[in-house]
Amino acid sequence: MSAGGHRGDNVRVYTVTLKSTGRRFDVAAGETVLEAAQRAGIALPYSCRAGVCGSCKATLLAGRCEYPRNPPLALDADERAHHAVLLCQAVPASDLLLAAREVPSVADIARRRLSVRVAEKRLLAPDVTGLHLLPAVGEPRLQWLPGQYLDVLLDEQRRRPFSIANGPQADGTIELHVRHVAGGGFTSRVADGLAVGDTLRIEGPLGTFVAREDSERPMLFVAGGTGIAPVKAIVEHFLELGTRRAMEVYWGVRHAADLYLLPQIERWQRQARQLRFHAVLSESSAADRWRRGLVHEAVLADHPDLSGHDVYMSGPPAMIDIARHRFVAAGLPEERLYYDSFDYAPDVLAQIIASRAGIHP
Ligand SMILES: Cc1cc2nc3c(=O)[nH]c(=O)nc-3n(C[C@H](O)[C@H](O)[C@H](O)COP(=O)(O)OP(=O)(O)OC[C@H]3O[C@@H](n4cnc5c(N)ncnc54)[C@H](O)[C@@H]3O)c2cc1C
Ligand code: FES
Prior knowledge:
There is one protein chain. By secondary structure, this protein is of the alpha/beta class. The chain folds into three domains: about 5-100, Ubiquitin-like (UB roll) (Roll); about 110-205, Translation factors (Elongation Factor Tu (Ef-tu), domain 3), CATH 2.40.30.10; about 220-340, Nucleotide-binding domain of ferredoxin-NADP reductase (FNR) module (Rossmann fold, 3-Layer(aba) Sandwich). The chain contains nine helices and 20 strands. Strands 1, 2, 3, 4, 6 and 8 form a six-stranded mixed sheet that branches. Helix 7 (about 295-300) packs parallel to helix 8 (about 315-330). It binds flavin-adenine dinucleotide and FE2/S2 (inorganic) cluster (FES). FE2/S2 (inorganic) cluster binds near residues 46, 52 and 54.
C-alpha cells in the first residue's frame, strides 16, 4: 500500500479502497473517511456523526487513521484491538484498505437544503410534539427513503437531527415526532414557541437507517420513545410493499401515556396479520395491561437466539448501546443490525466531549 499522494495544489490526499467492491475514493487533508465517501457518492453507514453510536464501524485491513476531532468513544478495547475504526471520525494518515458495508439505496438521492413551513402541530404525548412540515412556497419537495432523517438548520454551524416519521407523500408532507429535552434549545422552542405558519430551514435526507428488501428473514423492530418515528416509516413501507415476512414491533416507553401511536399500530395489525406488537413500560403501574421492564430484555426473553432475524432499532443512546451488544451476543450478525441512535447534535456532543476531556474549544 502506498503512503498517499499529493494533488496539484500540493494538498495531501490519501486513497481509500473498499475491499468488498474494490471501489476507491480520495480523502483530502483533514477530511474524515465518511465525508470523503459522501463527496464521492458512496454511501457508508452512519447515524450520530460524533463518534458515540458505533453505526459507522468498519474494519481497517491496512493503513493508519487518526482521530483529531472526537475520540472513537463507541469502540471498546476489544474492538480497537481487532482494528475497528469509526468512519465518521477517522482521518486517514496513509492510504487505507477497509472492510465496510455500503448502503447503495441511499446513494442515489441528492441531499438538499430547503425552507419548510409548519402546517400542523399537535401534542402526541406529555413530552412529544408532532409536526407536519410542508415545503415553503416555491420550494421543491424533499426526497427521502423511509427511515432517514433530516437536520433542522439553526445557523451555519448548528443543526438538530430528527427522523422523518413517514414515507414521501404526494403533497410533500414531512412528519416529525419531537421529544422535549430538558434544557434543549430547539426542542424547547418546538414545545413552547413554534407555531403553525412558522418556517424552518432543513437539510436532508440523511442517514442509512432504511429498509433492506433483499432478505426473507423475519424482522424485529425495536424502538425507544420517539425512536418509533423512523420505525413507523419503515414498517409502513413494508406494509405498502405487501410483505409476507413476519414483523414484530417492540416499543419501549416509560408510561402508558407515552404510547401515542397505538391507533396507528392497531391499523397495521388489521392490515397485516403477521405483525405482532409488544409495548414494554419501564415505569408501569399495576393497572397497565402492558409488559413491564426494559425493551431489549423483552426482545431477548422472546427471542433468546437472534441468528435468524433482521433487527431494526432506534431510540435513546443508552438503549441502543446496551441492546446492540446484547443482541450480537444472542447470535445476531452485526451486519443485520440496522440502527439510529438518537444522540444530541454533533456540535453539542463535541462540546460535551471536549469539556469532559478538559479541552476548551
Ligand atoms: C439520527 C438522529 C435522529 C434523531 N431523531 C429524533 C426524533 O425523531 N425525535 C426526537 O425527539 N429526537 C431525535 N433525535 C435526538 C434529537 O436530535 C435531540 O434530542 C435534539 O438535537 C436536541 O436538540 P435541542 O436543541 O433541544 O437540545 P440541545 O440544545 O442540543 O441540548 C441537548 C442537551 O445537552 C445539554 N447541553 C447543550 N450544550 C451543552 C454543553 N456545552 N455542555 C453540556 N451540556 C450541554 C442541554 O442542556 C440539553 O440537556 C435524533 C438524533 C439523531 C442523531
Ligand atoms: S459513531 Fe460514527 S456515526 Fe455514530
